Write a sequence for this structure.
């Protein structure tokens, strides 16, 4: 019985240290909540990005603006 008490006396400080670090660790429920939050935020960002204009639209608008600029320069050249 003395040996058991001696072993328990040695193990007790280790258990206290482990118990002191446990509050810093996340539980499975907390990890699931974080995953759920991240998943919903990613879905929200994807939906917001889907509403933005695509590359083809932006290139088309750039071409239209350049064509209008060229037409304006041509009109100025004809007037002078």
């Amino acid at each position: 019985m003395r040996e058991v008490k001696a072993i328990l006396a040695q193990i007790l400080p280790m258990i206290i240290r482990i118990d002191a670090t446990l509050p810093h660790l996340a539980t499975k429920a907390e990890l699931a909540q974080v995953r759920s939050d991240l998943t919903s935020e990613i879905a929200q960002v994807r939906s917001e990005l889907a509403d933005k204009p695509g590359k083809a639209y932006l290139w088309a608008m750039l071409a239209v603006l350049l064509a209008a600029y060229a037409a304006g320069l041509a009109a100025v050249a004809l007037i002078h």
About this structure: DSSP finds three helices and no strands in the chain. The mean pLDDT is 88.
